[in-house]
Amino acid sequence: MSNIKNAIDALKKGKIVLLYDSDDREGETDMVIASEFITPETIREMRKNAGGLICTCIHPDFCDKLGIPFMVDILDIAAEKYPVLKELYPNDIPYDEKSTFALYANHRMTFTGITDNDRAFTIKKLTDLCSSERFSDFGKEFRCPGHVALLRATKGLVTKRQGHTEMTVALAEMAGLTPITTICEMMGDNGKALSKDLVKKYSEENNFVTINGKELIDYYINEFLKQ
């Protein structure tokens, strides 16, 4: 079985997969799980053993139906009233042209929104809302700002942008799951991203499948899209 098929199989079983993008991009490995399987234990695993920002990546079709814009689009409009927002525009990202950050949200039935229980609840409820196509209930059930970073995947996914956002949503799509994922960068104790050697050691100790961006993108374009 190919490494990508192993990753798809693991994702279907609700397991965490480790995804390294590339040496030419962020050079970071993210923990990835299909959001329909998120639990407080998953958030704890990401918080304690990854340590980066926990984000939820959403398919662009869902974002359109929910009405979720890119954050940069919000800044563009709001800058008319608050000019400093124009100065803050992220036009100098060293590894990409456009950020996929959208909103930060909490489910309205959470308390502070930051605990493992609250974040898992927000992510699970958002995934349930999308999978049941109750898009018009988004504003009734969620408030903003909150403690879950929502990322809007680019239309065309990895054919247009090759970030963790698009790659993980493509992975969920290939697995036949609701195309919403939750990710977190793995950080080292030296102030940098966790090295590939330490990621390999961690994945072997915990029996996690590890894949890289090139093999995922190649499989998505040359196998999945041609089916």
TrEMBL record:
Its EC number(s): 4.1.99.12
What remark does the entry make about the cofactor?
Binds 2 divalent metal cations per subunit. Magnesium or manganese.
- Which is one Gene Ontology cellular component term of this protein? cytosol
Q: Which domain of life is it from?
A: Archaea
UniProt cofactor(s): Mg(2+); Mn(2+)
Please name the SUPFAM superfamilies in this protein's record: YrdC/RibB
Which Gene Ontology terms cover its molecular function? 3,4-dihydroxy-2-butanone-4-phosphate synthase activity; metal ion binding
* Enzyme class at the top of the EC tree: lyase
Keyword annotations of the record: Lyase, Magnesium, Manganese, Metal-binding, Riboflavin biosynthesis
Q: Which Pfam families match?
A: DHBP_synthase
What does the record give as its pathway? Cofactor biosynthesis; riboflavin biosynthesis; 2-hydroxy-3-oxobutyl phosphate from D-ribulose 5-phosphate: step 1/1
User: Signal sequence span per UniProt?
Assistant: none
For this entry, list what GO says about its biological process: riboflavin biosynthetic process
Please write the reaction equations for the catalytic activity of this protein.
D-ribulose 5-phosphate = (2S)-2-hydroxy-3-oxobutyl phosphate + formate + H(+)
Q: Which family does it belong to?
A: Belongs to the DHBP synthase family.
Q: What does this protein do?
A: Catalyzes the conversion of D-ribulose 5-phosphate to formate and 3,4-dihydroxy-2-butanone 4-phosphate.
Q: Which NCBIfam families match?
A: ribB
Q: Self-association or partners: how does it assemble? A: Homodimer.
- Name of this protein: 3,4-dihydroxy-2-butanone 4-phosphate synthase
Q: Which organism is it from?
A: Methanococcus vannielii (strain ATCC 35089 / DSM 1224 / JCM 13029 / OCM 148 / SB)
